[in-house]
Structures are given as structure tokens and as C-alpha cells.
Amino acid sequence: MAHKKGVGSSRNGRDSKPKMRGVKAYGGERVVPGNIIVRQTGTKIKPGKNVGLGRDYTIYAMIEGVVKFQPYSRSQKMVSVVPLEQPIASAE
After folding, report:
1. Which residue of 44, 56, 66, 87 has the lowest C-beta tally within 10 Å?
2. Three-class HEC string of 54-80
3. Which portions of the sequence form the region Disordered (predicted)?
């Protein structure tokens, strides 16, 4: 009598949903408050100025500006949002 069950398609069929992680706004791109810049597990990329860190380590913009990636250490990066320069209105 067989002690192993026949392994077929009835034993397959389990898989997790994709998490859609990664960089969503690259360096030089313009963002508005609330835009997601990076979705990640853990702080692979550190938050810099004018960005927030969500409970699931999502980095998002807190002001309107341009995304800027820069080195944090030899092996890590940091992302910030640089504010846009406001045009100076001439008084006439």
C-alpha cells in the first residue's frame, strides 16, 4: 500500500499577491505632497528632508518639489525633496 499521496495539481495553486515595491519617483522628477517616492521593506533607502516615512517604510513627499537621491553611507542611499524656487514677482 502506498504511503505517499500522488502529487498533482490539487497540491499546487498557492501564491502570494505581488507587492509592487520599488522606486516610484526617480531623481529629478517633480512631486506634490503625498506622492509616493519609494515602496520598500525596511529602510533600504533612508528618508531625508521634506519626506515622510510610513508605517510600512513607504517614503512619500511632504512638500512640492523635485526628488533628489544622495549617498547616505557607502552602501545606503537617502532620498529628499528639494523645494521649487518660487518665481520673484516684479512690482510694477
Report:
1. 87
2. CCCCCEEECCCEEEEEEECCCCCEEEE
3. 1-25
Cβ within 8 Å of residue 43, ≥6 positions away: 53, 57
CATH for the stretch 22-83? 2.40.50.100
Of the two residues 82 and 89, the one the predictor is more confident about is: 82
Q: Which residues have C-beta within 8 Å of that of residue 31, sequence separation ≥ 6? A: 25, 37, 61, 64, 65, 66, 67, 81
Domain boundaries, the chain: 22-83
Hey, what's the cell of 75? Answer: 552602501
DSSP strand pairing (77-83 vs 45-47): parallel
Bridge partners, 41 (sequence order): none
Q: What is the DSSP letter of 33?
A: T
Q: φ and ψ at 37, to 5 degrees?
A: -100, -45
